[in-house]
Amino acid sequence: PAFDKDGNLFFTEQGAHRVRKIDTNGVITTVAGNGTAGYSGDGGAATSAQLNYPRAAYVDTAGNIYISDRSNARIRKVDTNGIITTFAGTGEAGYSGDGGAATSAKISFSYQLTMDSQGSLYFADSNNHIIRKIDTNGIITTIAGTPETSGNSGDGGAATSAKLNGPLGVAFDTGGNLYIGDYYNEKIRKVDTSGNISTVAGTGTRGYSGDGGLATAATLYYPSVLTVDKSGNIYFCDSGNEGIRKIWKNGII
């Protein structure tokens, strides 16, 4: 789920192929998707368009909605007039396009989305084992992970030389550091503002342990989506353990 600046909640109802909104009065509406799986509607009303198992949504400060349209291998955008377009992806799952227009790039299983303070969109390109960035000119690049190569390596060096394994989650803190739910590596990773990567939670062994101690000594089980509060505390879905865990700013889980 995602909130806009007014406190309205947006979430994807993936099996119903819709994105829905719950306003601050508790009233629910559909903002994208007609309920039928497929791909259609670009250039028209988002509520008349087809989505295909949308997995995540993000709302920017202007009120534009970005949707991980998973099975369409696209990221869609709904503007403030309710018009939908394709923001990234050709519709063919795969990896290509870095350094060019995001709409000409291939992506595969996009998941959580977030945005930096400059307005660039970041997303987990999960099946490609990377985190990608779309800048304000619409150019796509990889900022973490080795494309099409899974693994668990690279801490202490450049994030673009590291290996991730099916990452699902991305979120920024107020300082501009990016956190990644590195799903199959059972870790939370961090890319600092210099582009270097480290592990902030998880030993790499699947399990449930460590509450009350250092997050780097804890075991996790499929950490997925996450968020960071204004104080720098991280909250993440420990999916395999069916719980939400918190990493305090001092590193305690």
Automatic annotation (TrEMBL):
It holds the Pfam family TEN_NHL. Residues 40-90, 146-203 form the Teneurin NHL domain. SUPFAM superfamilies: NHL repeat. This is Teneurin NHL domain-containing protein. PANTHER family: NHL REPEAT-CONTAINING PROTEIN 2.
